[in-house]
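EI: anyone free to look at a 645-residue chain?
SC: sure, send it
EI:
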Amino acid sequence: MVDVLIQTHNEEINLPSALKSVMGWANKVFVVDSGSTDGTIGIAEQMGAQVVHHDWEGYAGQKNWAISNLPWESDWILIVDADEAATPQLRREIDEVVAKPSERVRESGFYINRMFIFMGREIRHCGYYPSWNLRLFKRGRAKYEDRLVHEHMLVDGPTAHLKGLLTHEDRRGLEHFIAKHNRYSTLEAQEIYSSRVPWPGTRRFLRDRMARRRFLKTRVLPKLPVPWMWKFLYMYIFLEGFLDRSAGWNLCLFIATYEYFINVKYKELNRMHGRQTAVSGLSVGEGKLLASEAPVRRAAAPTPLPKKTAWLPLVSVVEVPLHSPETSSAISIQSPNCAARAGRVPVSVLIPALNEARNLPRCLDHLTWADEVVVVDSGSQDDTQKIADAYGAAVVQFKWNGLWPKKKNWALANVPFKHEWVLIVDADEWITPELADEIEQAVKNTEHVGYYINRKFIFMGGWIKHCGYYPSWNLRLIRHGCGQYEQLTDIGDTSSGDNEVHEHITPTGPVAHLKNDMLHFAFPTIHTFMEKHNRYSNWEAAVQYNSRLSDSASIGTKLSGRRRLKNLSRYMPMRSALRFFYSYILRGGILDGRPGYIFCRLLAMYEYLSVAKYLELCRLEEDQFRQRSLSAVPTAQSPVVSQAQ
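SC: here you go
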């Protein structure tokens, strides 16, 4: 007999396949969950697994806790990830091993080969096959080494290799793949920074593949020029990744970029003297990719929005429906339980927020001049609401239902702002005193309905003056009721979040430009940049997939032309390389020094993600069409076939 361990966190898409491959065959199946918020636990219980909750201890710590504390019955333990499945051949081989008394089996553990399935294709090259992992071991004879990521098992006794395969396919799509490797690269950079791998000795270096790989990866590769390029050439040419066709090309590019992130995050830690932000959990706001839904799901047309509701005193709450009863969401509007604000300028400030405790205090420090500040929150789990209350800001709790309008548009239509003029500020932006004085004069003007404000983009501690990011005009000061955000796609939930991404306000009258700039501290770390742009690229891919452009003539012909050019550019080869050349050379990113180079590389990666996810949506649609076609084919016993005969 064999007992099985599966570690989970929000694995409702992958888990059924993993459980199906071991339920009814294994003696016991334990699912150790670290706080899933989707249907993972329900699926595990329904399929007969024993669910155990344990707070996340890290990749190695979580498994070691399970190995030491679960009530195992069998002498043998098999570890299967939630995105893996045991093949029939592997189960038969394991049956032959565990059928013998454990003391008569010489080996203490067995390595199992994995077949990695990426973008719908088996990867047989790129260095990903064979992929040996020690997964079957005698109880009490093995544990995982203490590492942040890419941990391996230490076994007390001899080992051998089985022929059967584990299939490895993460059905959550590219979004989750990128998010996972963003976390991994942060952890790897921390590992390199905190513990340098020593020289293993000549004999071990030559004989031990893992020791050799880790030494080269941590002590040699970071010192090479353009290490990501060497990684790509090694995987794609030397390890024959080109034989895996387009999936191999994409995988090699992604892993090469992963190496680049490790390198720049390691240098970032050196620059920050080791200061690092926490990387918690297995999933960080990644949402649900459209893998489990029809990729052309359309949003229902919303009913007219309700009339605005007056403010209620102190902590009174009023529920306001967002759409029709069938698809309704509701918000809670409440005034802070603290003294009212007394700013000198009759302006209402709108701040969309979600877990912005780190940014919000400095943002609010630069808004003391405004008479009203409204924070539209989405159920933050940090101290966002407490901070807003302490600064005298009103708090609106917004729960999005996946349809339009999103947060800013909804707030402009529903929140009963106190003043005629509304200023929209993100939590990572600062309004300078000079800009505040200019806004005070602007709101006295009766000729315009809105004002564009320029932003200075702060990255890696400095102002990005080039790369196409300055000037960066955004219509942020608007007369209430004289404009709303455009809608560029009618696909519902693109997993990009509940806030507008790159949409612009379409004003209903004349606008002007203010002279002074706001400051934009968008990405304190490389990790933050990738986390946000991984979500934003979902939106870009959805817009491309939907093949629609908004009528943006009212916003300006320059923006309209730019969007049409961007839409056409998806057919161009090497689009990410062209984006880098455009930002770094044509738009002068080279003049911003090393931050400019890194920033342009990240923009190129973002461009590539948008294209790759667009192709992924196309492939999902083709797969669904193929499945529908196969299900519609009449069988030999069907009346249609009989009639033809």
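EI: The first helix runs from residue 15 to 20.
SC: 👍
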